[in-house]
Amino acid sequence: MRKYAKIVKRLKELDKRIATMESCTGGAVASEITNHPGASLILLFSAVTYSNEYKMRLGVSKDVIDKYSVYSMETAIEMAKNIAKFAHSDYGVGVTGKINNPDPANNYGKDDKIFVAIYSVSEDKIYPLYIDAIPNVNRLKNKENVVSLIGDELLRIL
Asked: What would you report as the CA-atom Rg of the chain, rounded to the nearest whole angstrom?
């Protein structure tokens, strides 16, 4: 996506770093960033954390997961803040949710909701995105849609 080339360029111009902690997107945001020259200057670390255990190992509070569920904006916020801190980055992106797929290990929440939090460290501000999975569309197309919407929001923020 051309928009991610602009994101990489803008972050380089600003001398800023970004990190992602992704669940349902499986690292697709980080992958899109690394498709562009100069990505190694702005993306030093990202993580795919499908399990609650590894979200918690990277700083997501068990209390937040227990209270709000792993599929919540509160968890996405924890993911964004903690990955930014862990990676010493200026921005953190947290993505969690379900893409038209039930999760027997976490049987709560709707199966078509994606929660995205973009955290700006310097502003100490969260930019939330609530995304509905597109019905009757395959997982790959839904992931592409989520990544595109995240790119739009990053461009707006930067």
From this structure: 15
The token duo for 138 is 């395959």
Strands 91-97 and 47-48: unpaired
- Hey, which residues does 116 pair with through a beta bridge? 95, 129
Asked if 7 contacts 151 with a C-beta cutoff of 8 angstroms, the reply is yes
CA distances to 39, 68, 107, 136 from 80, in Å? 19, 16, 23, 29
Supply 157's token pair. Answer: 């923020």
Q: What would the pLDDT profile of 85-140 be if each residue is shown by its tens digit?
A: 999 999 999 999 978 665 666 656 666 799 999 999 999 999 999 999 888 888 89
pTM (two decimals) = 0.93
Domains and CATH numbers, the chain: 2-157 (3.90.950.20)
Sign, CA dihedral 151-153-156-158, equals negative
